[in-house]
Amino acid sequence: MEKQQYLFIDFEFTMPEKSIKFKGFYPEIIEVGIVAVVDDSIREHFSSYVVPRKFSTLSRRCKSFLHISQEQVNKGISFYDLMKKLETISRGYQNTVVTWGNMDMKVLKDNCQKAQIPFTFHCKEVDLSMEYKRFFGDKNQTGLWKAVREYGREGTGKHHRALDDALTTYHIFKLVEQDKKYMGKSNPPTIGDLIDMSKLLNKFA
Question: What pTM, to 2 d.p., does this model score?
């Protein structure tokens, strides 16, 4: 039977200028971070820039927001090579992909469709931000780094760097799983826990 592998994935995407409309624009992956975990240990991690196919020139807004340069992205792997990497890293395992939010997998599938590449990266998908929201009963979804700070921790590296965000997602996943186990082991109080029996017996003595 294939071993369970968790793939903590984060992508960064292109974005248009606020004041300019790009005809037919859609977000493309320009950076990838993957943390592969088996038996609670990191088996492999991967980080790379990815060259966008359709809108190859990054907007000023994108470069400023992500602190990323055109030169860095130009030296990245192709989208086709990204899909090959995902296939390679998942091979031989039963895979669960964990992301913070649902955009990462949506954009990945959309980019495959636009590039006419078959989406063969089949796996169980977990949106950890929704798990976090349900577990803590929050009304709104919490941002990744806000969530880790609510645990009294700091994120790994820099926010909006794909591998750092993937590692931070992994750390939150471990914290939430620990809390789930703790809650699962907590037994409901017995009537003896709720009532001081000695006082009760004295009252009727």
Answer: 0.84
Quick: pLDDT tens for 15-56. Answer: 998 866 677 899 999 999 999 999 999 999 999 999 999 999
> Cβ(90)–Cβ(45) under 8 Å?
no
Helix orientation angle between 103-115 and 79-90, rounded to the nearest 10 degrees: 120
The pLDDT of residue 190 is above 60: no
* Spatial distance between the Cα atoms of 198 and 192, rounded to a whole number of angstroms: 10
Handedness of CA 88, 46, 12, 132 (dihedral sign): positive
- The SS3 assignment for 1 reads coil
Catalytic residues: 12, 160
Residue 102 has pLDDT above 60, yes or no: yes
14 and 27 in contact (C-beta within 8 Å)?
Answer: yes
Three-state DSSP at 134 gives helix
The set of residues, in sequence order, having a beta carbon less than 8 Å from that of 163 and lying 6+ positions away, is 10, 33, 34, 35, 45, 46, 47, 157
